[in-house]
């Protein structure tokens, strides 16, 4: 530091001394500031940075009172030298106590002054250096403490007696015990609560050998979990080179150990899995060399153990090349395309054959480059066989079911036969090439060819079967197809079967066995057989091997089914024959049901015919009876009067019985009233019957029908007025007169209008319309009443037909007879619920009808039935 | 327990007569003026005997008998009619008895007693 950079502030109350000091110091090239006033000194001091203050001791005391700082706190602190006289001694001592570093006695000598200044500055420099060292130390201490306390290691320092000298925060935290008194205690006491040193203590070793040790520790916690520690202990040496302390670094590696354990377990598990997996697994490097393989893989390729497979190259391996698998592996290794191969038949060079499925994916290394492949090979031989047999079984059952359903859908014998044969020959069913059905004719004791299904030759078979296969037809569809082609004449098997006649009159024969002993036969070498009928059938159907099963219904021989594989030559197994029997049994059952049904139907039909016959006879009888006029009238009259007679008789008896009983007087009166009522009814019936039977004498005069209608309405005025019925009359102007008996026409109209009123039950519309149609006049009498039931329309004009509770059933009959007597007709048009219209048609110019004949027509012999 | 009889007849006076007479005999009697009404009663009641008229507007007695027997084959039915020729009718064979209407109810009463005891 240059002198010029050293700033000195001088304060003295003695102006002369001040001037002198300034001069001396300036000459020595120090920077000098001076003042004789305490306040000014303070200002100057605060404005600048001074290295040295030379102050009169009294000024110093003044400044101190103004809290002038003297403690050397800051980096830059001024050195204070006080100038003092003899009398100021106590103040000087005080200043020195407070931090002033030196004093100058007045009078001040130059030499002394300069030496004092130099000493002070040197002292200051040393002080500054010392302070920097202290700061450095403090920093280092803090740094190490932070490190030691912050790291995840436990650190403990032990002295030669194994007493703890220091212990870091981490370890304190970990120990979870009162660590405040840990210092100075032996480590075994603190860590393990032991009174003596641990048996396996390694620290002692460090003290003895001076070499660091590493070891592992397992600590069990109170709740049983284990902590794994890694300990490193190294010595600290004293200046003489003796070990005086040992530092222990303790690392908790529990997590790492656990991870390692898990990893190991996982590895074991995977290895276990791999070696016990039922699936073959192997991996190769990028060139296709097998790097790893499990026992299952070895087994599949037929090797003894998995190591035999190591080093094989999947691109070269003959067993793989045979199947083209090397190409698949090449795709994986070169293109990175995963590969799957299902159901590959494998034949290994170790002589092991199987059906396998293979899956293969590339293994990728760093940067996605293909580093090899990993493949699984599954031996699906058993699965495959099982599946095949299941599928076959399902197909069979489906076939049985479909055949069963189809059979149930028909009662036609020919259909049943055909369905059975289709079931026998259909590809998804039993799959026989051809099937023949021979019906057993009991009368002639002969088997007679009935129908057959099957191709004529290999070419036709190929065509039909591939068509069936492509279309995937159901049995039902095949059956429908069959029915469509039923009329085709050129079906060879059918021609063959039609020619078949096998008499069962031989003493013994194949068919006797089958049919009468119910023994299905699987025949081979038929042409050389011992039975004559066997040779015959073999020759006829051109087949040497075939199955024959009986068709039995209700325990009775119905026929046989013969099935063969002429086209494919496939061997017929006993299993096939068994299945053939199942289908045939189904057919037998259905035939039985059909027979039963047919019998029942026949019986029902016979009964129905018998009933019809009987009914017809009875009707004929009744008609005959009714045709006799007397009989008919008698019956009708009998019926008509029987009801009132029964009433009268019954009540009369009751009255007579109870006549004397006073308590019955009221009842008797009521009964007598009924009797009177019924008698009145009888009288009315008699009148009607008389009117009906009486020969009608017609008195024809030219008659204006409108007048007659009007007269009728006025006769009925009272009846109509009682109701809410609206009457409309729509007359055709200038209606021609007709030749008619006005009284009788009036009676007809009266009857028809009354019927209309009754039909309407007091409400509705009654319309009368007249019109001329050609030579006839028509009178329409239309009501909006309840109408006439369709089944009653026919009988409407029959005598004694009535729907009214108290009607005689003669009204319309009489009307009809009167109108017929006029050469006209009455028709009716009616809908139930809507109303009825009666149409009376009368000829304008009455034909020359013989009066006598007209009268006789009014008689009882004519049936009026067809007039409606 | 009173035996119950259902009389079906379209003649009002005959219904009154049968009802009175059969009640006097100690039977429980319901009456119906048509087959339809008889069916309604049969839906809710059971009868030991049904006395059924043949000639009725609407459904006649033979037809009604078919319906009734279809529902209950064991139902006892007496056909009671003015027509004697129905006795020959095929359908009327299903009836348990056939009585020709008469002011003298003795035959009817005998039949009923015979059938229901």
Quick summary of this structure?
Chain A has 27 helices and 28 strands. Chain B is of the alpha/beta class and 117 residues long. Chain B has four helices and five strands.
Question: Secondary-structure element sequence of chain B?
Answer: EHEHEHEEH
CATH secondary-structure class of chain B:
Alpha Beta
Biggest sheet layout of chain A: 6 strands, antiparallel
What's the CATH first level of the largest domain in chain A? Alpha Beta
Gyration radius of chain A (Cα, Å) is 70 Å
Spans of chain A of at least 5 consecutive residues whose pLDDT stays below 50 are 625-631, 847-868
List how many beta strands of chain B DSSP finds. 5
Any guess at the CATH architecture of chain B? Answer: 3-Layer(aba) Sandwich
What is the terminal separation of chain A in angstroms?
A: 158 Å
Oligomer: heterodimer
Helix content of chain A: 40-55%
Q: Identify the most extensive interface between protein chains.
A: A-B, 31 and 24 residues
Number of helices of chain B: 4
Instruction: Briefly note the structural class of the backbone of chain B.
Output: alpha/beta
Helix coverage percent of residues of chain B?
A: 25-40%
The radius of gyration over CA of chain B amounts to 13 Å
The portion of residues forming beta strands of chain B comes to: 15-25%
Read across the widest sheet of chain B, the strand sequence of neighbours is 2-1-3-4-5
Structural class of chain A: alpha+beta
What does this structure look like?
The complex is a heterodimer of chains A (868) and B (117). By secondary structure, chain A is of the alpha+beta class. Chain A folds into 6 domains: 3-133, Response regulator (Rossmann fold, 3-Layer(aba) Sandwich), CATH 3.40.50.2300; 151-258, 2-Layer Sandwich (Beta-Lactamase); 278-379, Beta-Lactamase; 387-599, Beta-Lactamase, CATH 3.30.450; 631-689, Helix Hairpins; 695-867, Heat Shock Protein 90, CATH 3.30.565.10. In chain A, 47% of the residues lie in helices and 22% in strands. Chain A is built from 27 helices and 28 strands. Chain A has a 6-stranded antiparallel sheet with strand order 18-17-16-21-20-19, sandwiched between helices. In chain A, strands 2-1-3-4-5 form a 5-stranded parallel sheet, sandwiched between helices. The N and C termini of chain A lie far apart (158 Å). With 117 residues, chain B is of the alpha/beta class. Chain B has a single domain (4-116), classed as Response regulator (Rossmann fold). Chain B has 4 helices and 5 strands, in the order βαβαβαββα. Chain B has helices spanning 12-24, 35-44, 61-71, 106-116, and strands at 4-8, 28-32, 49-52, 77-81, 97-100. In chain B, strands 2-1-3-4-5 form a 5-stranded parallel sheet, sandwiched between helices. In chain B, α1 (12-24) links the parallel β1 (4-8) and β2. Chain B is globular. The two termini of chain B are 12 Å apart. The A-B interface holds A 611, 614-615, 618, 621-622, 625, 635, 638-639, 642-654, 667, 674, 677-678, 802-805 and B 10-14, 16-17, 20-21, 55, 57-58, 82-85, 88-90, 101-105.
């Amino acid at each position: 530091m240059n002198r010029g950079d050293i700033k000195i502030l001088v304060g003295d109350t003695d102006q002369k001394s001040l001037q002198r000091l300034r001069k001396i110091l300036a000459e020595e090239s120090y920077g000098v500031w001076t003042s004789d006033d305490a306040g000014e000194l303070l200002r100057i001091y605060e404005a600048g940075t001074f290295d040295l203050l030379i102050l009169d001791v009294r000024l110093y005391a003044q400044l101190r009172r103004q809290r002038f700082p003297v403690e050397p706190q800051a980096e830059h602190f001024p050195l204070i030298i006080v100038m003092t006289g003899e009398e100021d001694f106590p103040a000087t001592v005080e200043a020195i106590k407070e931090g002033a570093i030196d004093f100058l006695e007045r009078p001040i000598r130059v030499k002394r002054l300069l030496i004092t200044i130099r000493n002070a500055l040197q002292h200051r420099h040393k002080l500054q250096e010392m302070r920097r060292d202290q700061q450095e130390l403090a920093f280092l201490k803090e740094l190490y403490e932070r490190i030691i306390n912050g790291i995840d290691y436990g650190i403990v320092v032990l002295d030669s007696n194994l007493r703890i000298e220091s212990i870091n925060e981490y370890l304190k935290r970990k120990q979870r015990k009162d660590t405040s008194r840990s210092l100075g205690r032996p480590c075994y006491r603190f860590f393990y609560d032991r009174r003596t040193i641990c048996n396996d203590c390694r620290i002692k070793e460090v003290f003895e050998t001076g070499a660091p040790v590493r070891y592992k520790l397992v600590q069990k916690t109170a709740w049983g979990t284990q902590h794994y520690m890694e300990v490193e202990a190294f010595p600290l040496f004293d200046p003489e080179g003796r070990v005086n302390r040992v530092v222990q670094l303790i690392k908790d590696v529990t997590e790492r150990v656990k991870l390692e354990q898990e990893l190991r377990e996982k590895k074991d598990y995977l290895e276990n899995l791999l070696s016990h997996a039922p699936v073959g697994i192997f991996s190769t490097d990028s060139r296709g060399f097998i790097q790893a393989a499990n026992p299952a893989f070895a087994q599949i390729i037929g090797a003894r153990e998995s190591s035999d497979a190591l080093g094989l190259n999947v691109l070269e391996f003959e067993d793989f090349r045979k199947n083209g698998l090397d190409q698949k592996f090449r795709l994986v290794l070169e293109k990175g395309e995963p590969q799957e191969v299902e159901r590959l038949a494998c034949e290994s060079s170790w002589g092991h054959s199987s059906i396998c499925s293979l899956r293969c994916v590339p293994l990728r290394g760093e940067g996605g480059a293909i580093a090899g492949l990993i493949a699984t090979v599954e031996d699906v031989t058993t699965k495959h066989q099982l599946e095949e047999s299941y599928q076959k079984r399902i197909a069979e059952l489906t076939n049985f079911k479909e055949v069963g359903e189809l059979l149930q859908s028909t009662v036609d014998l020919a259909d049943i036969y055909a369905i059975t044969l289709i079931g026998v020959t259909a590809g998804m069913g039993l799959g026989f090439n051809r099937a023949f059905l021979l019906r057993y004719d009991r009368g002639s004791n002969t088997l007679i060819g009935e129908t057959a299904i099957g191709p004529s030759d290999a070419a036709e078979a190929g065509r039909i079967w591939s068509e069936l296969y492509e279309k995937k037809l159901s049995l039902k569809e095949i059956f429908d197809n069959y029915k469509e082609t039923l009329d085709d004449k050129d079906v060879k098997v059918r021609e063959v079967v039609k020619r078949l006649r096998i008499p069962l009159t031989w003493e013994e024969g194949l068919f006797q066995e089958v049919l009468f002993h119910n023994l299905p036969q699987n025949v081979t070498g038929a042409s050389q057989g011992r039975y004559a009928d066997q040779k015959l059938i073999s020759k006829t159907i051109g087949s040497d091997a075939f199955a024959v099963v009986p068709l039995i219904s209700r325990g009775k021989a119905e026929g046989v089914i013969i099935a063969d594989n002429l086209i494919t030559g496939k061997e017929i197994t006993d299993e096939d024959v068994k299945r053939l029997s199942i289908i045939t049994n189904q057919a037998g059952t259905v035939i039985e049901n059909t027979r039963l049904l047919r019998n029942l139907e026949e019986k029902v039909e016979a009964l129905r015919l018998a009933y019809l016959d009987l009914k017809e006879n009875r009707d004929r009888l009744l008609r005959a009876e009714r045709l006799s006029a007397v009989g008919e009238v008698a019956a009708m009259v009998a019926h008509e009067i029987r009801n009132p007679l029964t009433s009268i008789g019954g009540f009369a008896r009751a009255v007579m019985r109870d006549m004397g009983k006073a308590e019955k007087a009221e009842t008797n009166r009521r009964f007598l009233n009924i009797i009177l009522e019924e008698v009145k009814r009888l009288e009315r019936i008699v009148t009607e019957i008389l009117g009906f039977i009486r020969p009608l004498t017609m008195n024809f005069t030219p008659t204006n029908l409108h007048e007659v209608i009007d007269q009728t309405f006025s006769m009925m005025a009272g009846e109509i007025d009682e109701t809410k019925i609206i009457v409309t009359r729509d007359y055709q102007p200038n209606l021609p007169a007709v030749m008619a008996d006005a009284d009788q026409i009036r009676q007809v109209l009266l009857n028809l209008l009354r019927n209309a009123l009754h039909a309407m039950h007091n409400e509705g519309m009654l319309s009368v319309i007249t019109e001329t149609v050609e030579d006839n006049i028509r009178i329409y009498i239309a009501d909006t009443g309840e109408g006439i039931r369709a089944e009653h329309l026919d009988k409407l004009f029959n005598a004694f037909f009535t729907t009214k509770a108290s009607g005689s059933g003669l009204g319309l009959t009489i009307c009809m007879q009167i109108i017929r007597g006029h050469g006209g007709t009455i028709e009716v048009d009616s809908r139930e619920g809507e109303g009825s219209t009666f149409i009376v048609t009368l000829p304008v110019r009455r034909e020359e009808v013989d009066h006598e004949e007209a009268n006789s027509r009014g008689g009882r012999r004519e049936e009026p039935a067809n007039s409606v | 327990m009173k035996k119950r009889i259902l009389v079906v007849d379209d003649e009002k006076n005959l219904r009154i007569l049968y009802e009175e007479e059969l009640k006097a005999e100690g039977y429980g009697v319901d009456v119906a003026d048509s087959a339809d009404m008889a069916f309604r009663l049969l839906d809710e009641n059971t009868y030991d005997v049904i006395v059924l008229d043949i000639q009725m507007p609407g459904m006649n007695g033979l037809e009604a008998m078919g319906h009734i027997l279809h529902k209950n084959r064991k139902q006892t039915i007496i056909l009671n009619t003015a027509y004697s020729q129905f006795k020959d009718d095929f359908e009327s064979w299903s009836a348990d008895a056939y009585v020709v209407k008469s002011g003298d109810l003795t035959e009817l009463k005998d039949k009923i007693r015979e059938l229901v005891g």
